[in-house]
Specification:
The chain is an alpha+beta fold. It is built from seven helices and seven strands.
Length: about 190
C-alpha cells in the first residue's frame, strides 16, 4: 500500500488499471491510497476538495477481499495524521456494501440529497476534533427542507466548482435538478 499525491503520472496509472475510468473523481483528489498486486492498482481511495471528500474504487475482480476496508482505514488514519478536522463521503444508500463499509468505519450520516432522477447520496462524515464537529454539525442545516432548497440553488450556481469543492468530475455529473432535489427531500434521522 502506498500514499501518493495525485499528479499526471498517478492519473495515468489509475487509468491503465481501469480504476479511474469507473470513478473519475479519483483524478480530482489531492492524494490517494493505492493497493497494488503484481504492479497493478487493484484499489484506490482518495481525498480532496474543500469538504475533504473521500472516494474509493476497487477493481471488480478484487472485491470482497477486504481491500476497501483496508484502504478506507489508511485514508482515515492519514487524514488524521495530516491534521484534517473532518472528512466526508458521498454514499449512494442503494449501494449497501459501500454504505455498510462506511458505517462500520464510523462515518455518521449528515443529510441525504436526491440530486436528480437516479442520483441519491447520503453525505456522511467523521470529525477528528472540535472544529470538525462544528463543521459537520453546520452541514446538518441541509437535513432540513429549507437547507435542502438552499443547497439545491447553491449546487446549480456552483456546478463548475465541483472539482474543487467535492472532487467530482463535472463533465460526468448531470446538472442539479432544483425542483427534484426539493420535492424529494428526505430527512435523515439521528
Amino acid at each position: 500500500m502506498r500514499i501518493v499525491n495525485v499528479d499526471n503520472n498517478i492519473i495515468d496509472e489509475l487509468r491503465k488499471s481501469d480504476i479511474s475510468t469507473k470513478m473519475k473523481s479519483l483524478e480530482s483528489c489531492e492524494w490517494v491510497v493505492l493497493e497494488e498486486m503484481d504492479g497493478i492498482i487493484v484499489g484506490a481511495a482518495g481525498m480532496g476538495g474543500v469538504f475533504r471528500v473521500s472516494g474509493i474504487q476497487i477493481n471488480e475482480k478484487f472485491r470482497g477481499r477486504g481491500i476497501g476496508k483496508k484502504l478506507q482505514h489508511e485514508l482515515i488514519d492519514e487524514s488524521n495524521r495530516m491534521g484534517y478536522s473532518f472528512i466526508t463521503v458521498f454514499n449512494d444508500p442503494r449501494n449497501t456494501t459501500s454504505a455498510s463499509l462506511h458505517d462500520s468505519l464510523g462515518y455518521k450520516k449528515i443529510f441525504r440529497i436526491h440530486y436528480s432522477k437516479g442520483i441519491v447520496n447520503d453525505v456522511k462524515g467523521i470529525s477528528f476534533n472540535k472544529k470538525g464537529k462544528f463543521v459537520l454539525c453546520f452541514l446538518k442545516i441541509f437535513n432540513t427542507k429549507i437547507g435542502t432548497a438552499l443547497l439545491a440553488c447553491s449546487l446549480k450556481i456552483l456546478k463548475s466548482a465541483f472539482p474543487k469543492l467535492i472532487i467530482h468530475n463535472e463533465s460526468s455529473l448531470p446538472s442539479p435538478d432544483i425542483k427534484w432535489i426539493i420535492s424529494n427531500f428526505e430527512k435523515i434521522k439521528d
